[in-house]
Every structure is written in C-alpha cells, then in structure tokens.
Amino acid sequence: MHSWITTPLTPAHLRGALDVEHTPNGLLPHRLPAAARAQNTDAQLEMAESQPSGVRLALRTRATAIELDTLPTKRAYTGTPPRPDGVYDLLVDGRLTGQATAPGGNIVTTDMTTGATAPRSGEPGTVRFSGLPGHDKTVEIWLPHNEITELVALRTDAPVEPAPDPGRPVWLHHGSSISHGSDAASPTTTWPALAASLGGAELINLGLSGNAVLDPFTARALRDTPADLISVKIGINLVNLDVMRLRAFTPAVHGFLDTIREGHPTTPLLVVSPLLCPMHEDTPGPCLFDFSELGAGRLRFRAAGDPSETAAGKLTLNVIRTELSRIVQQRAADDPHLHHLDGRELYGEADHAELPLPDDLHPDAATHRRIGERFAAFAFGADGPFA
C-alpha cells in the first residue's frame, strides 16, 4: 500500500498552456488566452483550443507511484465505432516510461449528417503509474492531445514540486489539425512533439484543429507568448473551409506576420506551406464529409469546389504555396530571420504513394513520425532556421 500525498495542482505544474481556467472540478488548461477566447464564436475552435495538445504536467519528485484524477470530455460520432480513450504519456527524465487512459468522463456525441450534438455528463477517472525509479527525477505527464482534460487531483507516494526550467529553447508552433495531432498515436508522437524532442526544444503547440485561418486573435496570442523559435503552418484550413479568396489571403498573411513581428522582431520565424493533400491540390473547398462508407464505420472527406473557380480567386493548395513563397521572399529582403519551407518536403507525392491519408485529409501515426523527423532535420539541423 502506498502512503499518498495529495498535492494541490497549480499552473506552475503545467507546461505548454497559455492559460489555465479554474473550474468547479479543478484546472482546465487552455491553448489560447482568455482575450482570444472572448473574441471567438466558433464551437470547433472552442473545443480545439481546450484539447491540451502539447500540454504536460512537469514535476520534480522521488515518487515511485502517481495517481492523477481527471475529468475528460470525449467525442463520439453517430454511426461510427467508439473512439479510443485519450492516451496519457509518462516521461521520466525525457524517456517514455508508461502510458495510460482515464475511464469515464463526459461524452459529446455528434450526428455528422445533421451537426447536432448531445452532451452526457460523467465522472472523473484516475490515471495510474507505478514502478517509477525512486531517485530524484523529472516526471512529465503529457495530456491527451485530442481530449479536453480537467485536472482534478494529483497523488504521489513522495513529495512533488514543479520541475525547474530545463533551459531549452521554447518553440512556438501554430497550424491545423495535422499540427494539433489528428490521428497520431499519443501526445508525444504528434509530429510537433516528435520534432521538439529531436530538436531539443520546449514545445508550445498552437495547432488548432480546423482553425488555422489567420485569425487576428491567434496572431496576437503568438505575438504575446515568449518564444525563442516560431513556426506557422498556413493553408489547408483556408482551403477546406473556403473562408477567403486570394485577394484577402495576401494581406491577411502579411497582417498575421506583422502582428507576430510586433512581439518577436528578430526571432527565427518559419512559414510552412501545406503538406500534400491530393484532393485539394488544384480543387478549391469547401471540404465536405463523405458519408459513403459511414455504414462500415469509416468517415472520409471530399473536395466540393470547382477547379475552374481558381481563376476568380478561389484558393487551392498550389495557389497558396505559390503565394506564400512569394510573400516570404518579398519580406525576407528586410527580415533576415524569416524563412520558408514547402510542406511537400515534409509529406509529398512519394510519401502519399507509400503512406496515403486514411480519410483523404489527415495523416496516420506512421506519417506523423515521418513529418516530425523531417521537420527536425530541416529546422533544427546545422544549417536550419532553428539551428
């Protein structure tokens, strides 16, 4: 039997969150600050920024056993198999040592054919880890990247305190659901988490599923967050949501980068264009659900735009790549710390032939690993923008 010590959780125990809300249950990490959330009216973004991709508890302790009570909010979709519970990754001195899931929790069920949602309240569950080495060590518990997670209580068999600053450069990244984690296997195997580990950086992940659409409040969040390295991955959500035309896109990109530069005038800033996504390479959005395989429990996506409309300014991935390259080249004449990466260097045609996108939009776990390794080699390599 363990003699448990309950430690009140505080924001000091967390890394990777821009804000922490005190709820009746405990602490709810947020990846956008309150000022940004106050300007948002989109339910998808409200959900996405509350899912703690890249957020982790960071503790210094001799504990050999840890229990963490959490209240997860899980997603379910009518007509499809139940989604697996979110995974908690345990790192001891930087090494993956254990994984666990939390039973119970709230469930929000969505009918994809109508968009209707039905919430159901649940009870907190407990994540347990045991058999840890008894020496003084840094323990990180990475929270599920795809599950809203309220932190209720922490119990250990030895005292804990917030882990000290590791002294690594802070990498602030913004992108779409692929950066958020899409179908990665666990929170430390999303491509940004993998790249950060390989590059020796402390990650703050502002990958916001479906919401990399050049929102000014997101730009201000990037501007106001201390960081040593910054990257923004721009494109896919602008196409699949069909939110703007080329006329609006160009000044919106300039404005987004201008805002970031207000707070980070000389920080290395890498602009990444879209990964390969065949259905949107030359076909505009919107991107719609394809229900043809729903009876078999599979949900896919399809591009519903008309390629001929690109002449009138509709955006495709190729249009965006061309314009982003031009914008960065123009700005780099006065901004030597601004860099560009064509996303097809991370995932291109040969990769798609080997590792196709399972739902035609999102990469699988193996592809996340490939993207993370390639990004780390490019950005953190000897001649890379983050070297």
Instruction: Estimate the mean pLDDT confidence.
Output: 96
Q: What's the end-to-end separation, in Å?
A: 48 Å
Q: Based on CA inertia axes, which overall geometry fits?
A: globular
- Given helix and strand content, the structural type is alpha+beta
Strand content: 25-35%
* Sheet with the most strands, sense and barrel status: 6 strands, mixed
Stretches with pLDDT under 50, minimum 5 residues: none
Rounded radius of gyration (Å)? 21 Å
Number of discrete helical segments:
10
Write down how many β-strands occur, each being a DSSP E stretch of 2 or more residues: 21
Please estimate the helix content: 10-25%
Task: Describe the protein.
The protein is α+β, with helices and mostly antiparallel strands. It is 25% helix and 29% strand. The protein has ten helices and 21 strands. The protein has helices spanning 34-38, 43-50, 177-180, 191-199, 216-224, 236-240, 246-263, 317-332, 349-354, 365-379, and strands spanning 5-7, 14-15, 19-22, 27-30, 56-61, 65-77, 87-92, 95-101, 106-110, 117-120, 125-130, 137-142, 148-156, 160-162, 170-175, 202-207, 229-233, 269-272, 287-290, 300-303, 338-341. Strands 1, 6, 9, 10, 11 and 13 form a six-stranded mixed beta sheet that branches. Helix 5 (216-224) packs parallel to helix 7 (246-263) and helix 7 crosses helix 8. The radius of gyration is 21 Å and the shape is globular. The mean pLDDT is 96.
